[in-house]
């Protein structure tokens, strides 16, 4: 059972366009609407893999009602917390060459009572969860320490915590020792306050997060692959991807694969890489099913290429 927490969920509308011209009236070649938000995407990928998952989400307005309905259609149990504001709607424009343009709404501002209701819902649900995945930025009204309190309460309930956030919220939560944190390269560079130019730079940055409280770090390095650093060892993995259709939600799919495979060690990293590679081959924020995975394309190793330059250095 994987419980996910998305404090600022969304409806994600994706339009595929031949090209993007400012000021023009454009006709979409295809469009879709998906339940969105990083934790929601993790639940969608877990459900697509055939595992049980529940999503803790604040829900407001007709947008919130539609989000709840779509989650149910994906086989996700909804642990909704009513809020006064309306659930946000994000728009992604995908051009024929796979260039993405995203417009993300701010979302509602939560009251102190709504923030506490979310925490208590997570605490109660954590007792029956193997993992709690806490994902995404915090909405207006929630202080950076909110995730730290969530981690503390879920730990007291006996659950393991995966945290995917950044900035002050990550800094504050590290003191509560989340079981795994999942930054991308830019977030990892931000967390340590220096650029990352090589795989070795990323390893040393991940080790610094361990020193600050994280028990393991699963770092997405974009086209360069993924890195796992923790008590089970240090491993590096990658996969062949011929064509990228959309990278929206790929990191969330990776985290879902990692947790569904146990969340520890090289085999879990391989599952993370396979899920992330499958996600970028799919349109919009569609999550991969087992049929979309290509485990044979995945390679993992404990022999880390420390001097390998990152194709997309993080600054």
TrEMBL record:
GO-annotated molecular function: 1-phosphofructokinase activity
Domain Carbohydrate kinase PfkB: 15-290
CDD domains listed in its UniProt record: FruK_PfkB_like
Bias-annotated ranges (Basic and acidic residues): 305-315
InterPro entries (alphabetical): 1-PFruKinase (IPR022463), PfkB_dom (IPR011611), Ribokinase-like (IPR029056), Tagatose/fructose_Pkinase (IPR017583)
Record Pfam families: PfkB
Residue numbers spanned by region Disordered: 283-315
EC number in record: 2.7.1.56
EC class name: transferase
Signal peptide residues on this chain, from the entry's feature table: none
Assigned keywords, A-Z: ATP-binding, Kinase, Nucleotide-binding, Transferase
NCBIfam families, alphabetized: 1-PFK, pfkB
Annotated family: Belongs to the carbohydrate kinase PfkB family.
Name recorded for this polypeptide: 1-phosphofructokinase
Taxonomic lineage: Bacteria, Bacillati, Actinomycetota, Actinomycetes, Kitasatosporales
